[in-house]
Amino acid sequence: MASKKPENMTFEATIDELDTIVEDLENGDLALDDALKKFERGISLARAGQSKLNDAEQRVSILLQNDDDAPLSDFSSQPE
Asked: What GO biological process terms are annotated to this protein in UniProt (predicted)?
């Protein structure tokens, strides 16, 4: 099965695969070539994940800038 391109994956799927790769690399049971391939994939996933986080942060900033007059209040899970 071919791996999805990181930019086409959800953030959660990216993190899940990255966790798996880290576990595999920490085991130390991989051949050098396999370890390098997983490392390259991990770098690609990490960059894609960071890009998704940056995009989300930018969207939140834009939303907050567009509503500067809205009052902020503490979140309460219980109705008042």
From this structure: DNA catabolic process
Q: Using the 8-state DSSP alphabet, how is residue 62 labeled?
A: H
R_g over Cα of the chain = 19
Mean pLDDT of 48-67: 88
Backbone angles phi, psi at 75, to 5 degrees: -75, 135
Quick check: pTM over 0.70? yes
Cα–Cα distance for residue pair 72/70, rounded to 1 Å:
6
CB 38 within 8 A of CB 25: yes
| Total domains, the chain | 1
Distance CA 5, CA 3 (A): 6
Instruction: Indicate whether 1 belongs to any domain.
Output: no
**CA separation for the pair 6, 41 (Å, rounded):** 9
pLDDT digits (tens, 9 = 90+) for 25-35: 999 999 999 99
